[in-house]
Fold this sequence. Notes:
Blueprint: E1 7-10, H1 43-46, E2 55-58, E3 68-71, E4 76-81, E5 86-91, E6 96-98, E7 102-105, E8 127-131, E9 136-144, E10 152-160, E11 166-172, E12 198-200, E13 203-208, E14 220-225, E15 231-236, E16 255-256, E17 260-264, E18 280-284, E19 290-295, H2 299-304, E20 314-318, E21 321-327, E22 333-337, E23 343-344, E24 354-356, E25 376-378, E26 382-388, E27 394-399, E28 411-412
Parallel strand pairs: 2-6, 19-23
Antiparallel strand pairs: 1-2, 3-4, 4-5, 5-7, 8-9, 9-10, 10-11, 12-13, 13-14, 14-15, 16-17, 17-18, 18-19, 20-21, 21-22, 22-24, 25-26, 26-27, 27-28
Amino acid sequence: MSKFNNSLAFLLLPALLMGASVPTKMYDNRRTNIQASETVLTQAFVESPNFGLRATFHCAGPVFAQPLIYDTGTMKILEVVTASGHVCAFNSLLGGTVAPIWTYSVGQTFNIADDAYAPSGAEGCMTSVLNPATGILYFECHLTNGTTDVNNTHYLYALNATTGAVVAGPVNIAATDTATGVTFQSQNQAEIIRSSMLVDNNRLYVGSSNTTDEGPWNGWIMSFNLDTLALVNEWCSTCQSAGAGGVWMSGGGLLSDGTNVYFSTGNGTYDGTSNFAMSMVKLSLSSLSMVDWFTPSDWLALSDDDQDLDTPVFLFSANGHSYLVGGGKNGTVYVVDSADMGHLQGGGGTAPLQVMLNDSANCPSACFEYGLDGGLFLTPTDMYLGGFAGPNPGVARYHWTGSSFDTTGGAGF
């Protein structure tokens, strides 16, 4: 489906009936990109006459946020939040053109005319997440109170996923860095919530960034009470510098292992003390305090050339150990130890376990730009990269050898 379409069309026939809820982007908080309960979508089935258009669901406005599924036990409700500020719920078990069970509208959303990645201009509601334990849908919207884009504010919402009833909000997002007094610019169009939100530890986690590299902005991670949407903690990536360091990750999600939250930051300032742009970061879920990080040795050159880390951070487990995988616009993929990320590469800390695909012959800069998100997934034995260019175009598979990924056997298909 296109992220700019007003309608969603499902091709999956019985596959949509399988499994439980899909509460967040990439299926779960570890962003595995794997539906482990899927048993129907075999190659033979996809190639059979039974595979085809099953249903169409229309909700006004372009869709950037991941469509979600809430399993009530008797119904699988498709939850759709559009950039234009509309929320629609559908019975996903029905076929044909499906009417919504309920709809909700937030009002006039933010519109930016010069963002090439949002042809409609609408960037109002960009992310949503479900709490399957309570059946509550959370989402964020960027609203404007007039005919210009100068006066606009970010709000959090919580709706009953089954009925559409308001549970909490709208609550204005407001945060202040305790060390510097710098505030999250809720009324500044430069701040945009682009990464997928996270529900864990009885809190809602939100990351912020920027959309056009214009105006003052910082990268923020904020946690909110699930019941009241009141702010609990905040962390700022670059509040003690000129700014930037956005948490955008091409729209990918904040990752949790149940104890820590992981993400990457974009172009901006790094000093390893108070500023952590151009880094893969690990914070405590409970306090949002710094636990560990990794920063490429050439972060400044990459930042100056707008070749920032633009992927989510993925968790790969093998041999009873966990590794983090992430990458950037220049096509480089980094594999680091989740228990010892190494800090600045070449700065005396633990070196990355592996640095992959950083030569233009195999992966030019456009290979993963805005594309590794959703184009990378991991199994216990392999890593798959979509959008691969070079001698093996298509999807490339890299097998885990026990100590690293085999870069010589990447087969395109």
